[in-house]
Amino acid sequence: MSIKLFYFDVRGRAEVIRLTLALAGKEFEDIRFEREQWPKFKEQAPLGQAPFLEYEGKTYGQSGAIAKFLAAEFGLVGKTNVDRMRIDEVVFTVNDLFDCLVKQFTEKDETKKA
Question: What is this structure's pTM?
Answer without folding.
Answer: 0.83
